[in-house]
Amino acid sequence: MKTTEEQNPFRIAQMQFDKAAERLRLEPWLCAFLKTPNRNLSVDFPVKMDDGSVRMFTGYRVQHNNDRGPYKGGIRFAPQVNLDEVKALASWMTWKTAVADIPFGGAKGGVVCDPTQLSKAELERITRRFTYEISPIIGPDVDIPAPDVNTNSQVMAWMVDTYSMGKRQPEFGVVTGKPIFLGGSLGREEATGRGVMITALEAMKDMKIDPKKTTAVVQGSGNVGFHAARLLAEKGVRIIGMSDISTGIVNEKGLDLSDIAAYLKEHKILKDYAKARHIQKELILELPCDILVPAALENQITVENAERIKARLIVEGANGPTTPAADDILSKKGVLVVPDILANAGGVIVSYYEWVQNEQREQWQYNVVVEKLTAKLTKSYHEVIDLMRKEKVDMRTAAYMIAIGRVAEAMQTRGIFP
Ligand code: GLU
Q1: Are 383 and 363 spatial neighbours (Cβ–Cβ below 8 Å)?
Q2: Which terminus has fewer CB within 10 Å in the chain: N or C?
Q3: Which atom in ligand 1 lies closest to the alpha carbon of residue 73?
Q4: What pTM was computed for the model?
């Protein structure tokens, strides 16, 4: 049966916005303004490939809102990148920085490409040319990119270098998620996963679930999924399932995460991992478990599978993993969904700390970063859960209400130019 459910990420972001905005009784013009990105830049550029040929690439940088501070958000390299996806991701960044109450707005970027088919040298040339193309609209006080799907600290180092060469001076604050020795922050790489762990633990406390008697399944084994699994396991949660683009792996007794990390370092994908049972990667979401952490891409929990989800608690490590129709089904089933704009805000919170360290020419201790992140995210979690109870809405709507309220207040107080 073909589904008729909405799966365009930007339409979904707008639906989520509408649900919360209705309760806030915002004026129509303000809703229209906050639902639309301020600026959408699309760039097409040629890149020399290793075999001597030249290929054209398309990239985007969408700046959704900067009423609370400079635009902020990652850059992804993936084949499915398109303008509507980037517009949705940029909007989600605005709400994420607002729920976390850090002085940034929201933006996102992406390049349509398949990094698995590119050499390191080709990736570098794509990164540098893309950075050049978006340089007129980024900057440490304007718009600050960061890593996202298939980009990492090396890509950020190339971006810093390209941008700095153009400015003829070092500009480390232009991106976050950099290597430590190039102005990166301790604790940044694991920060999104740590945020997932922090919010999951708070939710478990609320639901009176003992982490030591709990099982979790993680969809994705990248930067977010892997660190979330590792840090949850440190708190006593048994990780019984994990997946990547190639397969799903299961072990009811608990997966050996350090063994998996070593395996992934060598083989990149889990396809032939021998120390666990393999299942179809899509079925990982339906395994019997207490906590489900979708940490891959958008539209994973849909009308097609929401009914079959067994977890009591879903903590969204990815951006946009649950569709609005699936949200309704989960809410009827009594499943608590800690929404992406709160659950995965750890990354951008530590990005903010990295940016502050760059501005101050300082390097904070790892413990300082972890303590600040924990305090910040715990506070946001409680603000959201308290409003959820008070307003009798789902947790996503409560998070949006707080975020939209903060951005709307900033916008209205600043007034309309000219
Ligand atoms: N890409 C991450 C996210 O989606 C981090 C963004 C950032 O640090 O700017 O939240």
Answers
A1: no
A2: C
A3: 9
A4: 0.98
